[in-house]
Amino acid sequence: MCSRPVRKYCFNRSDNDMHIKNVVGYVGGLLGTRKLFIAEYEVEVGYRIKDASKLLVHSKSKEVLLLGIWGMVGIGKTTIAKAMYNESCSKFEGKSFLADIREVWEQNTSHVYLQERILLDILNLPKIRIDNIEIGKKMLKKRLSNKKVLLVLDDVNKKEQLNALCGSSEWFGPGSIIIITTRDRSLLQDHRVDHVYRMKEMNKNKSLELFNRYAFKKASNRQYLDELSKNVVAYAGGLPLALEVLGSNFLGSLESIPDGLIDSPHPVLQKVLKKCVEDLNDTEKAIFLDIACFLIGMDQEEVIQALNAFGDLAKDGIKALEDRCFITFDEMNKLRMHVLLRDMGREVIYEQRGGDPASWIYDVFLSFRGEETRATFTSHLYTSLANAGIYVFRDDDEIRRGDRISISLLQAIRASRISVVVLSRHYANSRWCLQELENIMECRRAIGQVVVPVFYGVDPSNVRNQTGLFGEAFQDLLKRFSVDRDKEKRWRKALHQIGSIAGIVIIDSRNESEDISLIVEDISALLDDTLLFVAQHPVGVKSRVQHVIKLLNHQYAKDVQLFGILGIGGIGKTTIAKAIYNQIHRDFEGSSFLENIREFWELITARVNLQEHLLSDIYKTTKIRIHSIEFGKTMLQQKLRHRRVLVILDDVDELDQLKALCWSREWFGPGSRIIITTRDESLLRVLNVGHISRMSEMDNDESVEHFCWHAFKQSSPKEDFAELSIDVVAYCGGLPLALEVIGSVLFDKNVKEWESLLEKLKKIPNDKVQKKLRISFDSLNDDTVKQIFLDIAFFFIGMDRNDVVHILDEYDAEIGISVLVD
User: Fold this and answer.
1) Of 553, 415, 440, which is closest to residue 490 (Cα–Cα)?
2) DSSP letter string over 582-616?
3) Helix (H, G, I), strand (E, B) or coil at 521
4) Which of 582, 593, 568 is nearest to 678 (CA)?
5) Would residue 436 show up in a list of annotated catalytic residues for this protein?
6) What's the pTM?
7) In what order do the strands lie in the sheet containing 177-182?
């Protein structure tokens, strides 16, 4: 029952219009009192409202009060603003909550829409029209200067927005409160708000409660999952958005969360965080990326010194990043960055390089303890590598002057194909050596960089466990410098990882020249191991590759596993398979990538060549000869059953191809992985593959970026082509091949040529794209199935499956539709 007192209206025929307006106004008022939705689970919201409301103590006075709510993306600024609005709105003559101003400002070219919204909300008018921003400012001041209003401006990111919507406190009546949520403190300072409320991360207990509510729909979980939940909560770093996304997405598969997060940060969170970077200028972006990769945990003065390449802009850049919640400095003046922002920054860097051979500058990065081995072993190794024609990056006194870390030195790590780490007794006594090592191991994880450890005078177990003289040197470093626990943990992890890699051990050697020759020989062999070209601009490749690699579990599971990558032509199956090969093939005793099997199989004489190619790749020889398919099957089983191999069969479309190349798991040694890319799911079912990864279309953001790289040679559309680009991207439907082909056709064309081509595409599809898609149609062996496909394409898209089967009953449509789905 409604307890609100009923207002009575008595109508006279003479003034019906007036009374109708009164009723409309009253009903509008009732609707205006509806509460805003805050959150599904309001954990800690009440406490934060109470804390922020302390800053509104003089709201009962005649002054207009401006309150800023400031914090990083996903911290809950909007949630708190909504809750404060709901709690206080009844105390004001008028109220308005403008949500997502950043997004509305970008998408709506008529910015007066927001000014109109304020007046419509507060004055309860059915309609109002404002011609331009300047007129809107005058109207806001004229209409609202005598009203006590509550106005919330949510997610502000530009000074122009504040100037247009609340340019002066004189615009509003006495006792009004204006609340502004933003990620940028400088906007609040420039606008001279009365108070700034800093949104902080949730504590561990509240974070765990919020995560559990999304993951288990209750405040606590089963005891055996408690430790796993805590790992996820630690990764989320008290960010409500992260706790919500991770809890909701991993419900029912919590056991796999921690490793998954480390290998591949959640794409939804990455996408949200990347948008924050768009507000930074080029210098600020570069500084942010350098900090994310190299400088977290350093003293502020050390950070400025490390960023000396930016000159005076370094301090301004650091200030801008601090204002926009990208970084903070703790009570010890150490630089901190949220783990999700750090991972996002590193992902940006690694996506730019992506393991593509074209991005390498050096063959080898040489990491060593300078004062211990520079003049002896390392000098001889460097000379021998250089004499062998290997391009080596070795830091010298000009680069690491004054014992300060150099950004250029650390950037060279990710620009190198191989890192050789000379682990001497005092290597772990240097902060900069450990900083190098941490980044080397991160490059190994993220882009598959090859790491070759040389244990010079130390046992690998001492490196792995930080024991012996090596461990004493590390402990001495920890005592000399105030190393925080997080950085110590990361360094220990990097040392354990490199100590676990099979490398070259040189202890009490009688012939270092011979040892160095062996190292050079090994490095030369690794450099001869050419990687496959993936893509010039690998948009969206990283996340898809990490997803598949996680499922492969290739470093742990010892059984032979078959894996399918399924999708339509042009969806990017081969691209993903190549990127997977590049990243993991060195973890196997042998590897082979057989490309375009469908095309080769059409030439009967070339079929045994595929079997020869497979064995030749794995045994590194060209002398293998196979006389027939059946003989080849026997050879594959005999030669490979004791080897742990990676085999990728690309573009398979016939069962006989699988019979000839990978018909039985018994053909391959324990731990082998066989990956098959195909358009036909039925082939994968016959082979009983363990996992099938279905390739999805690119989302809108990925599609726009992929298209723009080919159409404009940049990641976003040129100004005059924004709307046309959206139309083309919509036409391509997220298909990478279509985006690439049509983007390349449109490169360097004018607007009229774009419009003409787009009209033509609507009538006659692009030949190259059609040819690729036609392959799938031509591979349908049954004419009836082809006819069903054509009927569906013309008449039945969007209809219920049962209705389609009923209409096409003369074709035995149920079987035909199943074939088309496969």
Assistant:
1) 440
2) HHHGGGSSEEEEE--HHHHHTSGGGHHHHHHHHHH
3) helix
4) 568
5) yes
6) 0.65
7) 94-98, 149-156, 177-182, 65-70, 195-198
Degrees (nearest 5) of the Cα angle 343, 80, 126? 120
Q: Is there a contact between 261 and 234 (Cβ–Cβ < 8 Å)?
A: no
pLDDT tens per residue across span 521-576: 888 888 876 678 888 788 888 888 888 888 887 666 678 999 999 988 888 899 99
Give the CA dihedral 203, 206, 208, 212, nearest 10 degrees.
-160
DSSP secondary structure letters along 100-114: -HHHHHHH-S-THHH
Given a contact cutoff of 8 angstroms between Cβ atoms, the answer to whether 583 and 545 are in contact is yes
Higher pLDDT, 217 or 769: 217
Task: Collect all residues with Cβ–Cβ distance below 8 Å to 354 and sequence separation of at least 6.
Answer: 447, 534, 535, 538, 541, 542, 579
Per-residue DSSP letters for 254-323?
Answer: GGGHHHHHHHS--HHHHHHHHHHHTTS-HHHHHHHHHIIIIITT-BHHHHHHHTGGGTTHHHHHHHHHHH
CB 417 within 8 A of CB 360: yes
Which DSSP string corresponds to 210-223?
Answer: HHHHHHHSSSS--G
Please name which of 43, 94, 493 lies closest in space to residue 240, comparing C-alpha atoms: 43
| Whole-angstrom distance, CA of residue 807 vs CA of residue 70 | 60
Reading the block at residue 241, the tokens are 């958005």
Q: What is the DSSP string of 615-678?
A: HHHHHT-S-----SHHHHHHHHHHHHTTS-EEEEEEEE--HHHHHHH-S-GGGS-TT-EEEEEE
Please state the length of the chain. Answer: 822
Position 674 confidence tier, pLDDT thresholds 50, 70, 90: very high
Q: Residue 780's CB: how many other CB atoms inside 10 A?
A: 16
Angstrom CA distances, 612 to 365, 480, 569, stand at 36, 60, 27
State the pLDDT confidence band at 1, using cuts at 50, 70 and 90.
very low
User: Could you give phi then psi for residue 647, rounded to 5 degrees?
Assistant: -125, 125
CA–CA distance, 817 with 822 (Å, rounded to integer): 9
Mean pLDDT of the chain: 82
Residues facing residue 153 across a β-bridge: 98, 180
Q: How far apart are CA 594 and CA 652, in angstroms?
A: 10
Q: What is the pLDDT of residue 356?
A: 55
Q: Of 687, 690, 586, which Cα lies nearest the Cα of 645?
A: 586
Q: How confident is the model at residue 758 (pLDDT cuts 50, 70, 90)?
A: confident
**Cα atoms in the Cβ-side hemisphere of radius 13 Å centred on 159:** 6
Residue tagged active-site, from 436, 681, 705, 740: 436
What pLDDT is recorded for position 715?
83
Q: Contact 586/555 with Cβ under 8 angstroms?
A: no
Angstrom distances, CA of residue 756 to CA of 515, 741, 745, 763: 66, 16, 12, 11
Q: Are 149 and 95 in contact (CB under 8 A)?
A: yes
More confident residue, 798 or 77: 77
Residue 774 has pLDDT above 80, yes or no: no
Lowest mean pLDDT among 347-351, 516-520, 716-720, 770-774: 770-774
**Chain mean position to CA 149:** 41
Q: By the 8 A CB rule, do 138 and 130 touch?
A: no
